[in-house]
Amino acid sequence: MTYTKIAISGKICSGKSTLFNDLEEKLKWPVFQTGKYFREYAKKNKLTLENAGEQNDKLTKKIDYMMRDKLHEKGDLIVDGWMSGIMADKIPDVLRVLLVCDDGVRAARFSEREKVSLNEAKKRVEERLANWIDKLKKIYKRDDFFDEKNYDLIIDTSHISSRKVLKIVLDTLSSSPIS
């Protein structure tokens, strides 16, 4: 099976957006980023990302199913979203990538990105993750969003460079047999 699509999943600040951007630049494939879509919607509607409860279930499903439908289309595609690996289940040409990362490292990344204290970052990362997990459990009646069994490639980004993460994904793509 040759992979023509890549679905990137992972918790907040695990490196999803960095890998997504690096792959987009390297491969020049079409892209769909659920977080960007949500951020634009939240900004337009004056909502916060930290409080996922403000988002309605219908919108969440709409975005996730939009991503799923795009994964079923012919052609190359890179998607980034919490549910991308789950939505790509049983789609044979999708490389489902899960990025994992130590909680302390994720909080430090958030602190640096958002220019907040480490304690504030820990609090906001935990709250945002808990809100999203609770919301997704309610919507999809499951809780295995980050279970490694749902993914083809798991990369711990805690202590490796983004360049190394990109290389691992590209090596996996290039080693996939031609169908």
Written overview of the protein:
The protein is α/β, with parallel strands linked by helices. The chain contains 7 helices and 5 strands, in the order βαβααβαβααβα. Strands 2-3-1-4-5 form a 5-stranded parallel beta sheet, with helices on both faces. α1 packs across α7 and α5 packs across α6. It is globular. The termini are close together.
Total number of beta strands = 5
Query: What series of H and E elements makes up the topology?
Result: EHEHHEHEHHEH
Strand count, sense and barrel status of the largest sheet are: 5 strands, parallel
Report how far apart the termini are. 5 Å
Q: Judging from the principal axes of the Cα atoms, what is the shape?
A: globular
Rg from alpha-carbon coordinates: 16 Å
What's the average pLDDT?
Answer: 89
Q: Kindly report the spatial arrangement of strands forming the biggest sheet.
A: 2-3-1-4-5
**What's the quaternary structure here?**
single chain
- The computed structural class is alpha/beta
Q: Helix fraction?
A: 40-55%
Total of helices? 7
| Regions with little confidence, pLDDT below 50 for 5+ residues | none
Percentage of residues in DSSP E strands: 5-15%
